[in-house]
Amino acid sequence: MILADGDIKKALASGRIKITPAPDLTTQLGSCSIDLRLGNKFAVFNHSKKAFIDPNDPKMARELMEEVVVKKDEQFILQPGDFVLATTVESFKLPDDLLARLEGRSSLGRLGVVVHSTASVFEPGWEGVVVMELGNLGRMPVALYPGMRVCALTFEQLTHEAEVPYYKKKTAKYRKQKTPMPSKIAEEKE
């Protein structure tokens, strides 16, 4: 069951869902979702350093990515074909019986900007900021501004609490993330 706007408000008021800083419900609450705003930290690929990405090399993702911090009232230009990681202003925490799904906003999609390529589910027990996989599928650069509404979360009720919520998983690589962390897929190597 997907939570409706009234259920989201109740979950926020009771602390069942925690979002920090508190969202402005007059502009961020939809009928079954809550919008999150774009943060000011981006991780961009420096693709001229290596010929290819090796997912088994634990250092490569960190070496290939560089953090860009955008100052207040400035913009980040997402070039056509670019792929960057970006964070939201808000961090959130889920209880053990709810999951959240990340959705892009149609207004940005109509400009060619996609918000996630694969990572759309936040498991029960999640805590941290959203790290989005932003891409520009269009032919023109798009200016993105920290603080703009960039994505939405929907919430789904599980049939019961998860036996192993995210914070208890031994394989939880992005627990309490605060920055656009590069891939940690190399940690999965046996």
Automatic annotation (TrEMBL):
EC class (word): hydrolase
Coiled-coil features, chain-numbered ranges: none
A Pfam family recorded for this sequence: DCD
A biological-process GO annotation: dUMP biosynthetic process
Pathway: Pyrimidine metabolism; dUMP biosynthesis; dUMP from dCTP (dUTP route): step 1/2
Keyword vocabulary terms for this entry: Hydrolase, Nucleotide metabolism, Nucleotide-binding
GO terms of molecular function: dCTP deaminase activity; nucleotide binding
Signal peptide: none
EC number: 3.5.4.13
Catalytic activity: dCTP + H2O + H(+) = dUTP + NH4(+)
Entries under CDD domains matching the protein: trimeric_dUTPase
Binding of dCTP, residues: 105-110, 166, 173, 177
Positions annotated as active site in the UniProt record: 133
InterPro entries from the UniProt entry: dCTP_deaminase (IPR011962), dUTPase-like_sf (IPR036157), dUTPase_trimeric (IPR033704)
Similarity-based family: Belongs to the dCTP deaminase family.
Function: Catalyzes the deamination of dCTP to dUTP.
Subunit-level organization: Homotrimer.
Name by which UniProt lists this protein: dCTP deaminase
Organism of this sequence: Candidatus Beckwithbacteria bacterium GW2011_GWB1_47_15
The organism's taxonomic lineage, starting at the top: Bacteria, Candidatus Beckwithiibacteriota
UniProt gene name: dcd
